Amino acid sequence: MTNTVSGLDCRPNLKRENRSETGRGRCSVSENTCINEQENGNMGDNPLTGFEVDKSTLKYIGKDLQRPECILAESDGILWSADARGGVVRIHPDGTQKIITQSYRESFAQTTDLATRFTEGTLPNGLAFTSKGDILISNFGTDCLEVMTREGETRVLIDSIDGEPIGKVNFILRDSKDRIWMTISTRIKNWMSAISPNIIDGYIALVDKGVIRIVAEGFHFTNEIRLDEKEEWLYVVETCGKHVSRLRVHEDGSLTDREIYGPEDTGAFIDGIAFDSYGNLWGTHVMTDQIFAITPKGDLKILLDDDNPAASQTLRKAFEADEVTPELMLTCGGTIAPWFASVTFGGADLKTVYIGSLRGTRIPYFQSPVAGLPMIHWK
Predict the structure, then answer these.
(1) CATH architecture of residue range(s) 4-18+55-378
(2) What b/e string do you get for 180-194 counting C-beta neighbours within 10 Å, with b at 16 or more?
(3) Residue closest to 119 by CA, chosen among 147, 89, 142, 136
(4) Separation of alpha carbons 367 and 14, rounded Å
(5) CB-CB neighbours of 164 under 10 Å
(6) What is the pLDDT of residues 37-79, one digit of tens each?
(7) Could you state, in order of their start, the residue ranges of all structural domains in the chain?
(8) DSSP state, 17?
(9) What DSSP string describes 224-290?
(10) 216-233 burial, b if ≥16 CB within 10 A, otherwise e?
(11) Residue 178 in 3-state DSSP?
(12) In this predicted model, what pLDDT tens digit does every residue of 276-297 receive, in sequence order?
């Protein structure tokens, strides 16, 4: 059977190519390799200089959400939030909301064992719009890529690659050529068992004109990815590497020149990332609940800190010893929206920042001094 997304034949026809795994570099500011292309112009002072989020100014939207990990924002102010009931929640600017799913499920809320809750069942994770306006869903629980209409009709597009289960499909990104980039965090079924400094089985797949192929592999738990404004570089979160890597994107979708972007160790586990219009790469530290930015010069700035320091320190030590357990992870998290997972720019001016989370039930947001880089569906 042939499945089509935006005109793409999505049969799992894997074409292998040279994959970017070895020969990794280190982004060196002194060599100007870490500076965003925009920085070469006369851009003036970074608008994030001196900026920190005042927790007292945080506002919230949405209620009774279940695992609102990823958020899509549209120019009319409507938000689409991933939801563990099997689909997404559409949230209007006035706060009214509707769960949209083909098969409504309550297993997430009803499961009393927290480790099981976050590893089994349907877990919609990364979201992206197709060119037709449907929603691509990387399901972190059922290990597949799905497409859902705005009315809730859902079908599986991809669940295997090379004749094997695809693994933990984490994030999905569509580019200006209507290609689909996918991250697979690990091939281990229980992702909590992959939170280790020694497991490096994450990879990136590309769907281009109906052909699915692995374009890069050997990542420490691949998570969110973003393209820069010119789509010259693909930025890749390596959660268990605690850093962001980037790879040069070629016309045919192949990736080369892999290097670490910014700090080699940001000090915590990164989850989501997003660019602003100046060239700062915003991100979230999951479990330690921080929002940070890597500037075009490669500096790390903490913009919001809701950490539980004692629990986080215990987790870091356990990770270094390769002794992380679900129980240790679950002791971590702040009070705003536990387990920060993503940052999304929205609002008419793209200066409203929404925080996705794994354990929150509503979406915090605040105003940024700089607009976000428009996603492909805004153009």
Answers:
(1) 6 Propeller (2.120)
(2) bbbbbbbbbeebbeb
(3) 142
(4) 43
(5) 10
(6) 444 444 689 999 999 999 999 999 999 999 999 999 999 999 9
(7) 4-18+55-378
(8) -
(9) EEEE-TTS-EEEEEEGGGTEEEEEEEPTTS-EEEEEEES-S--SS-EEEEEEBTTS-EEEEETTTTE
(10) bbbbbbbbbbbbbeeeeb
(11) coil
(12) 999 999 999 999 999 999 999 9
How many other CB atoms are there within 10 angstroms of residue 271's CB atom?
27
What whole-number distance in Å separates Cα of residue 197 and Cα of residue 169? 20
Contact 201, 238 (CB under 8 A): no
Query: What is the number of other CB atoms lying within 10 angstroms of the CB of residue 199?
Result: 17
Pairing of strands 169-174, 97-100: unpaired
Q: Which of 55, 36, 54, 56 is nearest to 46 (CA)?
A: 36
Which DSSP category does 38 fall into? G
The single-letter DSSP state of residue 374 is P
Identify which of 220, 158, 163, 216 has the alpha carbon closest to the alpha carbon of residue 186.
Answer: 220
The residue with tokens 């080369």 is 256
Give the pairing type, strands 340-346 and 300-305. unpaired
